[in-house]
Amino acid sequence: MTPSQMIRVPFGAAFALALAVSTLAANDDAVPEHPTFSRDVLPIMQRSCQTCHRPNMFTPMSLLTYDEVRPWARAIKQRVEARIMPPWFADRTVGVYRDDPSLSETEIATVARWVDQGAPRGNATDAPPPLEWPAVDTWYHGEEPDLVITSPPVVVPPNSTETFPEPELPTGLTEDRYIKWIQVMPGESQVVHHVLIYAVMGGADAEDTGGGPRRVRELLANRARGDFAGDYFEDGYARLLRKDDLIRFQLHYLPDDEQSFVDQTRVGIKLYPKGYVPEYVVTTKAVSNRDLIIPPGDANVRSDAYFTLREPARIISFQPHMHYRGKGMTLEAIRPSDGQPELLSDVNRFAWDWQPTYVYETPLTLPAGTVMHVTAYHDNSAANRVNPDPTAAVGWGDRTIDEMNIGWLDYFYIPEDEFAALQPE
To answer: Which of 72, 253, 285, 376 has the largest CB neighbor count within 10 A?
Structure first.
């Protein structure tokens, strides 16, 4: 397997393939003199908008057809020119990522000129074929999972407080198995802010840490707004699911203002065949700082978190996690050879309600002893338009009115000889 092959597929292998073989890739050709929807704008919508803006998703409108797009033309122009839409908050000059939906300057200018010229439909024969999107309640990877584990029903009344149930359920496995793909599927996405799926040890297997038993083994998957499909692993890569581990759902519900919902979230797991052993075992690390002290009114509060790689490793992805006051987050690598930080990712426009995972186009190769440094910035001032209370001092907590500093890293360790072979000549 070549170093350039990717492991994590953030929105489903079928989608990625469909888009890869189409003619929708961003480019920097000249802006058309007279752009039309069919020829020039629809390909942009298909590549960068329709993942979310389609029926039965959580977005306020569908953008599949001209009749759906035309009433929103001026608003679309304003949003894309401000780079508010499509949502992508990583600095495009730092790192290269898979599935980056952000628009090129040429694409933005094309949309703007199309709107300024009256948003013409154009010739229907110029339009690319419509994309075939799977139903919202579909397992994205084109096959049924081997395990489907369903959380107990949770009633989420309107205008109620946030809730954080954490049910634990058995897998039914009789031997250790490796995961090929895993996907979280909320029952009522309108009120599910995010879901974390953990493998946790049974009580008898819990590790004694001196401060109480540690049962959480590792994060297996998550689903947040902006990060839908979970993980799909190419041959040679997998996550390990032990036979006696339980599946813990960590559910975060944000109630609707008017409607009551009953949610049952499912996790689907496709396993490799029995006896299969991958070359690489992927794991996830929460690089976090729980000692947050965010004073009232402060617009730029910095906190730092660190994690040291004990072996040579390849970093697959980075996902910042904060709440309402989150402003930005960076990831640096500090190599043991020189101690100088290298900026790997700069998510400088964090949005609490849209938290994508930034998957590197090629996994980053780092030596043993490298310190992964996460720096979070919080804005607790009145200028932060989503700040629930700029007069409050804030610390770590699960509620969205509390705060967090977590940089989720997906990575896998590699042997020393492989690390050496991956170094540039």
So the answer is: 376
| Helix or strand (DSSP H, E) at 50 | none
- Which residues neighbour 125 within 8 Å (Cβ) at sequence distance 6 or greater? 38
Judge if 152 and 274 occupy the same domain: yes
State residue 401's pLDDT score: 94
Do 299 and 255 belong together in one domain?
no
Cα 46 from Cα 179, distance rounded (Å): 31
Nearest to 348 by CA among 44, 106, 15, 95: 95
Q: Which CATH number fits the domain that encloses residue 412?
A: 2.60.120.230
Average pLDDT over residues 293-309: 98
pLDDT attached to residue 230: 73
Q: How many domains does the chain have?
A: 3
Closest CA to 87 of 237, 227, 234, 252: 227
> Which H/E stretch holds residue 198?
strand 192-200
As a whole-number percent, the residues of the chain with pLDDT over 90 amount to 75
Write down the number of H helices and E strands in the chain.
6, 22
For residue 423, what are the contacts with CB-CB under 8 A and spacing of at least 6?
365
Contacts (Cβ under 8 Å, ≥6 apart) of 138: none
Residue 366: inside a domain, yes or no?
A: yes
Rounded CA gap, 269 and 356, in Å? 21
Are the beta carbons of 317 and 409 closer than 8 angstroms? Answer: yes
373 touches 407 (CB < 8 A): no
Domain boundary among 253, 281, 309: 281
Q: How far is the C-alpha of 51 from the C-alpha of 99, rounded, in Å?
A: 11
Would you say the C-alpha torsion 159, 163, 168, 171 has a positive or negative sign? positive
Look up residue 335 and give its amino acid: R
Residue among 368, 361, 359 nearest 414 (CA): 368
What's the CA gap between 146 and 272, in Å, rounded? Answer: 9
Could you tell me if residue 235 is inside a domain? yes
Angle at CA of residue 349, ends 69 and 361, nearest 5°: 80
Same domain for 229 and 119 = no
Same domain? For 73 and 154 the reply is no
Domain's final residue, options 229, 253, 281: 281
CA gap 73, 111 in Å, rounded = 9
Q: What contacts 336, CB < 8 A, 6 or more positions away? A: 367, 368, 369, 370, 371
Cβ(404)–Cβ(301) below 8 Å: no
Is there a contact between 184 and 223 (Cβ–Cβ < 8 Å)?
yes
- Summarised one tens digit per residue, pLDDT across range 147-173 is 999 999 999 999 899 999 999 999 999
